[in-house]
Amino acid sequence: MKNTILTLQQRKQNQQKITMLTAYDYTTAKLMDESGVDCLLVGDSLGMVMLGYDSTVSVTMEDMIHHSKAVARAAKTAFVVTDLPFMSYHTSVYDAVLNAGRLIKEGQAQAVKLEGGQAFCEHIKMITQASIPVIAHIGLMPQSVLALGGYKVQGKDYQQAKNIILDALAVEQAGAAAILLECVPAVLATLISELVSVPTIGIGAGAGCDGQVLVYQDMLSMYDGVSSKFAKSFAPIGEQMKQAFKQYCHEVTEQQFPASIHEFAIDDVIIQNLKSEFLTDNRSIV
Ligand code: KIV
């Protein structure tokens, strides 16, 4: 059965943890779906891990729709959430609703995520009013990297921590269906998870959140662009891929691949006829 926003909310009520991973393409999304991951996030991190940008700010609506459609086609069970990219909702509430609608209609997402707390409550309210579930991303907001001057843990002093709590309460009040907490102290995230009734999903926010999310290239050691303390490697897939690519190059150059088991056959009579038709004295087909 397909997961919905209610599945995530029931998980919180039943004190069961929510699993979320980023996904950007059909093949990987299908593997995750078949592995029982609850929720696939088509994150704008795709700008970095799939497109090679330094940050997420260059990602466009077209990029998000393209990848969201691919993930949605694979997600038979998993709930699909797609990020509103930088400048697709900052300009006005109207743009926010319009672009959230595009992610649902064209990108086949089941919910959208946007980065912002108290300042984006009107946007969250109006998107929610359009019957689109919104996940509010607070704490470290990577789309604000230029203003923040880098990726830093948020909420370490009293004022910052209080502000993040106020963000969480405000977005819940505005109608956010879940809250994503990035790079905040673990005890602060636990406190927020107790204060709000909607599920919290953490990345670099400790074990007290109602669920966890990781960028899949991080958990498989496939990407070395930005390293984070919280990004546990679950398998050295990046290294295994490199070994496989090297082995492929070796076998092709050494003429070990393809072997006869990888070849298609043709009737000998046909090939003899073709040879006598095409082979001349000064040209030969081996
Ligand atoms: O874009 C993304 O992948 C995210 C994660 C960092 C949670 O927002």
Rg computed from alpha carbons, rounded to a whole number of angstroms? 24 Å
CATH class of the largest domain: Alpha Beta
Give the proportion of residues in helices. Answer: 40-55%
Shape category:
elongated
Please describe the biggest sheet, giving its number of strands, its sense, and whether it closes into a barrel: 8 strands, parallel, barrel
SSE run: HEHEHHEHEHEHHEHEEHHH
* CATH topology (level 3) name of the largest domain: TIM Barrel
Say which CATH homologous superfamily of the largest domain is assigned. Phosphoenolpyruvate-binding domains
Residue windows where pLDDT falls under 50 for at least 5 positions:
none
Strand order of the largest sheet: 1-2-3-4-5-6-7-8
Number of E-state strands: 8
**Roughly how many Å apart are the termini?**
56 Å
CATH architecture of the largest domain: Alpha-Beta Barrel
Mean pLDDT across all residues, rounded?
A: 96
- Bound ions, cofactors and other small molecules, one mention each: 3-methyl-2-oxobutanoic acid
**How many H/I helical runs?**
12
Q: Find the structural class using helix and strand composition.
A: alpha/beta
The number of domains: 2
The percent range for strand residues is 5-15%
